[in-house]
Amino acid sequence: MSGAAILINAAISGAAYCMTVRMIPRFREMFIKANLFGNDLCKKDKPQVPESFGVLIGCVFLVSLFMFIPVPFAFDEAAATDAVTGGKPDTFPHDKFVELIAALLSICCMIFLGFADDVLDLRWRHKLLLPTIATLPLLMVYYVNYNSTTVIMPNFARAIFGTSLNIGVLYYIFMGMLAVFCTNAINILAGINGLEVGQSLIIAGSILLFNSIELFLGHQVDSHIFSIYFMLPFLATTLALWKFNQYPSQVFVGDTYCYFAGMTFAVVGILGHFSKTLLLFFLPQILNFLYSTPQLFHFVPCPRHRLPKYDNKTDLLHISTTEFKLEDLNAPGRLMVTVLRKLRLISWHTKADGLVRTNNFTLINFVLVVFGPVHERVVTQMLMGFQVLCTLIALAIRYPLANYFYAET
After folding, report:
1. 8 Å CB contact between 333 and 294
2. If residue 324 lies in a helix (H) or strand (E), which one and from where to where?
């Protein structure tokens, strides 16, 4: 009866979409009066735009799933025995119930912490610590219900490690780091109208497509149904937010939405048992993280904001820059910028005094390095197109290539 539960979930998601579309315009003035707004620096008139709307979207998402909690268990064959016996069934699926509640708890914690970041402007070390704390309910449930830390080895490594390898506590460290990465990766690749919500829409759609393929193949049915329960309302509320966040943005989403989206993806990846496939859908975010590494870890000077510069005269975005002297960098920093320069992945201008000016190391700026000054809407479209391309690459890796490397010997 899982099909009926999915249909009810879809109906609730549709209602969540309609509710979100109606609520966003009504809350805009309320957020501005509460000083939760920012200026859109990539517009000629620098309009005031209410921000931190991720908290509103997250609340609608949570209410949707709170309403859905009884549904999958009402259709569960074990729970259905309650109608016959008149009492509580002995075989009630407590493990599934706890999974659902723990997942909602982790997402709820991350929405709260994200809103705290928007209001209090937390430091980066806190942004790394908070997702780790919010992931603890997930890891505890995974330990109690599964505690499977065995990794299947690819064919070329089986001669050394065997068919599988139990990595123990390292698997839990990996899952904790996955949550930290997902919550921050979207936040790092952000800053122009519609980009945070656009990439989240594509990732959510990619996960739903993957879930559907796996259900068709009959692989881990319960895990992928669990993922669909979360992805449908997330996709619905995010699609409603997209109507107001796409260029020109009427609302900003804030760090709250980035944390909420990242934790939702981490939840379904961990409890749905496809964490490695989830990372494949994050290929643009991984590339952006690797490209940003010299500045994120301060091997190269990193300004507070790395957004592109806006030209009032042409209404186009230009690269934002950072300056340094090559000899002032430490050895790893010099090596990184030299490699990036040789590969022509960064701009490079040397002044008479030896000061080097180069673009800030973000995927947004890289698009401007390659294509020159571009309109903000076009940059978002390019990056969303790249996200779709990476989804196709991810599915190719997950199926034809994975079947080759993990073929039975």
Report:
1. yes
2. strand 321-325
334 φ, ψ (degrees, to nearest 5): -65, -40
> Structure tokens of 401?
């290539």
For position 90, what pLDDT does the model report? 56
What is the per-residue pLDDT across 247-294, written as a single tens digit (0 to 9) for each?
999 999 988 999 999 999 999 999 998 988 999 999 999 999 999 999
CA distance linking residue 404 with residue 136, whole number of Å: 35
| Average pLDDT for 342-364 | 90
User: For residue 289, what are the CA distances in angstroms to 182, 254, 280, 382?
Assistant: 11, 19, 14, 18
Amino acid 346: pLDDT: 92
Written as one letter, the residue type at 250 is: Q
Place of tokens 């749905």: 272
Interatomic CA distance for residues 366 and 287, integer angstroms: 11
Domain limits, the chain: 1-293
Q: What is the pLDDT of residues 167-191, one digit of tens each?
A: 888 888 888 899 889 988 998 998 8
On whether the CB atoms of residues 321 and 357 are closer than 8 A, the answer is yes
Note whether 257 and 57 are within 8 A (CB): yes
pTM of the model: 0.92
Nearest to 309 by CA among 291, 294, 321: 321
Question: Phi-psi bin for 62: left (phi > 0), alpha (psi -120 to 50), beta?
Answer: alpha
Query: β-pairing, 355-359 with 349-350?
Result: antiparallel
Q: What are 12-69's pLDDT values in tens digits?
A: 999 999 999 999 999 999 999 988 888 888 888 889 999 989 999 999 999 999 999 9
Does the N-terminal peptide bond of residue 248 adopt cis geometry, omega within 30 degrees of 0? yes
DSSP codes of every residue in 148-167 = --EEEPPGGGHHHH-SEEE-
**DSSP secondary structure string, 337-388?**
HHHHHHTT-S--EE-TTSEEEEE-SSHHHHHHHHH-SB-HHHHHHHHHHHHH
Residues 195 and 189: beta-carbon distance below 8 Å: yes
DSSP state of 39: E
- State the DSSP code for 282: T
| Cβ atoms of 56 and 23 closer than 8 Å | yes
